[in-house]
Design goal:
The chain is mainly α. It is about 50% helix and about 0% strand. It is built from two helices and no strands. The chain is globular and about 35 Å long. It starts with 14 loop residues before the first helix and ends in a 10-residue tail after the last helix.
Length: about 55
């Protein structure tokens, strides 16, 4: 069961990189949002064991 997607993350990147990313996602029949969510999930899973549990910085 999927969790609710109730938060947004604003990321500023170079326009050319954004355009290339969007075009590649379209070619691969996926969405940029889906690919970024997958990246975040993998990143968190990879690094969470190193976390102290303090998420306030």
């Amino acid at each position: 069961m999927a969790k609710n997607k109730d938060a947004q993350l604003l990321v500023r990147i170079n326009k050319d990189q954004k355009d290339q990313f969007i075009a590649l996602c379209n070619e691969l029949d996926t969405s940029s949002s889906k690919e970024i969510r997958k990246f975040i999930k993998r990143f968190v899973n990879k690094h969470k064991s190193k976390s102290t549990g303090d998420h306030n910085g």
